[in-house]
Design brief:
- The protein is of the alpha/beta class.
- Helices cover about 45% and strands about 15% of the residues.
- A 3-stranded parallel sheet has the order 1-2-3.
- The radius of gyration is 15 Å and the shape is globular.
- It starts with 5 loop residues before the first helix and ends with a helix.
Length: about 120
């Protein structure tokens, strides 16, 4: 765990976007139903730093998880991204780090954390 004082972040990044992960997922699902998906990703890609707070604090639907995964995939190489969570790495491993699902096939949620945790 590392602590970075807000003034240091704000001195380094011009536009920092701080979002509650569950509120973001709910907004992504709402926007998708309205047929306006892509707007959130486009806006966040112009941020210098995006902070997604409390991943895993409250559960969200599988479709919401897929939308979040897609958004993170779009942001990954376009902007700096920090994800905070209250889950331990071992607990995350139950659903996210397994190389294959129960049926032996890899799923889309098997890759995000190992892929995005590299420096």
């Amino acid at each position: 765990m590392s602590l970075i004082p807000w003034p240091v972040l704000l001195d380094h990044y011009n536009w920092v976007c701080f979002l509650s992960t569950i509120e973001l997922v709910n907004t992504l699902e709402k926007v998708k139903l309205e047929g306006k998906h892509g707007r959130i990703a486009n806006r966040l890609m112009s941020a210098d730093l995006v902070i997604l707070d409390k991943l895993g604090y409250l559960p969200f639907s599988q479709s919401g998880g897929a939308l979040l995964f897609h958004l993170i995939s779009k942001l990954y190489e376009k902007t700096s991204l920090i994800i905070t969570t209250n889950l331990s790495f071992l607990r995350m491993g139950i659903g996210l780090w397994r190389p294959e699902n129960d049926d032996g096939a890899a799923g889309q949620t098997d890759a995000p954390l190992p892929h995005y945790l590299n420096g």
